[in-house]
Protein backbone atom coordinates (compact mmCIF):
# COMPACT_ATOMS: atom_id res chain seq x y z
CA UNK A 1 0.00 0.00 0.00
CA UNK A 2 1.39 3.41 -0.95
CA UNK A 3 1.00 6.91 0.44
CA UNK A 4 2.16 9.54 -2.05
CA UNK A 5 3.36 12.82 -0.64
CA UNK A 6 4.92 15.93 -2.09
CA UNK A 7 6.70 16.98 1.09
CA UNK A 8 10.15 18.42 0.45
CA UNK A 9 11.76 16.66 3.42
CA UNK A 10 12.36 12.88 3.48
CA UNK A 11 11.73 12.84 7.23
CA UNK A 12 8.44 14.78 7.01
CA UNK A 13 7.27 12.72 4.03
CA UNK A 14 8.01 9.46 5.84
CA UNK A 15 6.26 10.63 9.01
CA UNK A 16 3.14 11.90 7.23
CA UNK A 17 2.93 8.97 4.80
CA UNK A 18 3.43 6.43 7.58
CA UNK A 19 0.73 8.12 9.68
CA UNK A 20 -1.80 7.59 6.87
CA UNK A 21 -0.65 3.99 6.34
CA UNK A 22 -0.87 3.33 10.09
CA UNK A 23 -4.48 4.54 10.12
CA UNK A 24 -5.18 2.15 7.24
CA UNK A 25 -3.72 -0.92 9.01
CA UNK A 26 -5.53 0.05 12.23
CA UNK A 27 -8.89 -0.23 10.43
CA UNK A 28 -9.35 2.95 8.36
CA UNK A 29 -10.42 0.89 5.37
CA UNK A 30 -13.81 0.10 3.87
CA UNK A 31 -14.23 -3.23 5.66
CA UNK A 32 -12.65 -2.06 8.96
CA UNK A 33 -9.99 -4.78 8.84
CA UNK A 34 -7.04 -4.56 11.17
CA UNK A 35 -3.87 -5.53 9.34
CA UNK A 36 -0.63 -6.70 10.92
CA UNK A 37 2.29 -4.30 10.64
CA UNK A 38 5.03 -5.47 8.28
CA UNK A 39 8.57 -4.30 7.70
CA UNK A 40 10.22 -2.54 6.13
CA UNK A 41 8.59 0.84 5.84
CA UNK A 42 9.83 1.89 2.42
CA UNK A 43 10.17 5.50 1.32
CA UNK A 44 10.85 5.86 -2.40
CA UNK A 45 12.31 9.11 -3.65
CA UNK A 46 10.99 10.39 -6.99
CA UNK A 47 13.21 13.24 -8.25
CA UNK A 48 11.63 16.32 -9.84
CA UNK A 49 8.07 15.16 -9.13
CA UNK A 50 7.32 17.55 -6.28
CA UNK A 51 6.55 21.25 -6.17
CA UNK A 52 9.04 23.43 -8.09
CA UNK A 53 10.82 20.32 -9.35
CA UNK A 54 11.73 19.14 -5.86
CA UNK A 55 11.62 15.47 -4.91
CA UNK A 56 8.37 13.73 -4.08
CA UNK A 57 8.02 10.57 -2.04
CA UNK A 58 5.99 7.40 -1.84
CA UNK A 59 5.82 5.80 1.60
CA UNK A 60 4.97 2.12 1.34
CA UNK A 61 4.08 -0.86 3.48
CA UNK A 62 3.98 -4.43 2.31
CA UNK A 63 0.71 -6.16 3.08
CA UNK A 64 0.68 -9.56 4.79
CA UNK A 65 0.06 -12.50 2.44
CA UNK A 66 -3.52 -12.79 3.72
CA UNK A 67 -4.37 -9.41 2.16
CA UNK A 68 -2.24 -9.42 -0.99
CA UNK A 69 -4.78 -10.93 -3.38
CA UNK A 70 -7.54 -8.56 -2.31
CA UNK A 71 -6.34 -5.62 -0.21
CA UNK A 72 -9.00 -3.81 1.81
CA UNK A 73 -9.82 -0.50 0.15
CA UNK A 74 -8.50 2.45 2.15
CA UNK A 75 -10.82 5.24 3.21
CA UNK A 76 -10.70 7.83 0.37
CA UNK A 77 -9.51 10.68 2.58
CA UNK A 78 -6.27 8.79 3.31
CA UNK A 79 -5.21 9.13 -0.36
CA UNK A 80 -3.63 5.67 -0.45
CA UNK A 81 -3.43 3.22 -3.31
CA UNK A 82 -2.42 -0.39 -3.73
CA UNK A 83 0.76 -0.95 -5.72
CA UNK A 84 1.59 -4.29 -7.23
CA UNK A 85 5.34 -4.60 -7.59
CA UNK A 86 6.45 -7.18 -10.10
CA UNK A 87 9.41 -9.32 -9.22
CA UNK A 88 12.59 -7.32 -9.78
CA UNK A 89 16.17 -7.17 -8.63
CA UNK A 90 17.62 -4.50 -6.42
CA UNK A 91 21.05 -3.53 -5.18
CA UNK A 92 21.11 -2.93 -1.43
CA UNK A 93 23.38 -1.12 1.01
CA UNK A 94 22.75 -1.42 4.74
CA UNK A 95 23.31 1.39 7.21
CA UNK A 96 22.58 1.89 10.88
CA UNK A 97 21.13 4.69 12.95
CA UNK A 98 18.13 6.74 11.97
CA UNK A 99 17.38 7.51 8.31
CA UNK A 100 17.50 11.29 8.12
CA UNK A 101 17.54 14.03 5.49
CA UNK A 102 21.21 14.49 6.41
CA UNK A 103 22.36 10.92 5.67
CA UNK A 104 20.14 9.23 3.07
CA UNK A 105 21.73 10.97 0.09
CA UNK A 106 25.20 10.03 1.35
CA UNK A 107 24.14 6.39 1.71
CA UNK A 108 22.65 6.38 -1.80
CA UNK A 109 25.92 7.84 -3.13
CA UNK A 110 27.91 5.14 -1.32
CA UNK A 111 25.75 2.49 -2.97
CA UNK A 112 26.32 4.13 -6.36
CA UNK A 113 30.10 4.13 -5.81
CA UNK A 114 30.02 0.46 -4.80
CA UNK A 115 28.03 -0.43 -7.89
CA UNK A 116 30.37 1.56 -10.14
CA UNK A 117 33.25 -0.63 -8.94
CA UNK A 118 31.42 -3.89 -9.56
CA UNK A 119 30.10 -5.99 -12.40
CA UNK A 120 26.79 -4.18 -11.84
CA UNK A 121 28.22 -0.87 -13.08
CA UNK A 122 25.86 0.87 -15.51
CA UNK A 123 23.04 -1.56 -14.68
CA UNK A 124 20.94 0.54 -12.35
CA UNK A 125 17.48 1.41 -13.54
CA UNK A 126 15.91 4.15 -11.48
CA UNK A 127 12.65 3.95 -13.44
CA UNK A 128 10.22 6.18 -11.59
CA UNK A 129 12.23 6.14 -8.37
CA UNK A 130 15.80 7.34 -7.88
CA UNK A 131 16.20 5.11 -4.83
CA UNK A 132 14.28 3.85 -1.83
CA UNK A 133 15.07 3.81 1.87
CA UNK A 134 13.91 0.73 3.79
CA UNK A 135 13.52 1.17 7.54
CA UNK A 136 13.08 -2.01 9.58
CA UNK A 137 12.91 -0.79 13.18
CA UNK A 138 10.41 1.03 15.35
CA UNK A 139 11.31 4.67 16.03
CA UNK A 140 11.53 3.64 19.70
CA UNK A 141 14.54 1.42 19.02
CA UNK A 142 17.68 3.49 19.44
CA UNK A 143 20.50 0.93 19.25
CA UNK A 144 21.18 -1.63 16.52
CA UNK A 145 18.87 -0.08 13.95
CA UNK A 146 18.76 -1.55 10.43
CA UNK A 147 18.11 0.54 7.34
CA UNK A 148 18.84 -0.07 3.68
CA UNK A 149 19.10 2.01 0.55
CA UNK A 150 17.69 0.21 -2.51
CA UNK A 151 18.13 0.87 -6.21
CA UNK A 152 16.65 -1.19 -9.05
CA UNK A 153 19.08 -3.18 -11.16
CA UNK A 154 18.10 -3.54 -14.82
CA UNK A 155 18.80 -6.46 -17.11
CA UNK A 156 19.82 -8.58 -14.19
CA UNK A 157 18.24 -11.91 -15.13
CA UNK A 158 21.32 -12.98 -17.05
CA UNK A 159 23.67 -11.55 -14.44
CA UNK A 160 22.90 -13.87 -11.56
CA UNK A 161 19.80 -12.19 -10.17
CA UNK A 162 17.18 -14.82 -10.74
CA UNK A 163 13.52 -14.16 -10.04
CA UNK A 164 11.91 -15.99 -7.16
CA UNK A 165 8.56 -15.71 -8.91
CA UNK A 166 7.09 -13.87 -5.90
CA UNK A 167 5.19 -10.65 -6.36
CA UNK A 168 4.28 -8.30 -3.55
CA UNK A 169 1.82 -5.49 -3.13
From TrEMBL:
Gene3D superfamilies, A to Z: Regulatory factor, effector binding domain (3.20.80.10)
Leader peptide range in chain numbering: none
Pfam families: SOUL
Top-level lineage group: Eukaryota
PANTHER family in alphabetical order: HEME-BINDING PROTEIN 2, HEME-BINDING PROTEIN-RELATED
Family: Belongs to the HEBP family.
This protein's name: Putative Heme-binding-like protein, chloroplastic
Amino acid sequence: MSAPTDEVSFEKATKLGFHRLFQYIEGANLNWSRISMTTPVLTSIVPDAGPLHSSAYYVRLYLPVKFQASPPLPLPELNLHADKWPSHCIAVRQFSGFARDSNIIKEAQRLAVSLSRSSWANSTDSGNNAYSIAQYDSPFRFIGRLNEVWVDVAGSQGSGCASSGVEVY
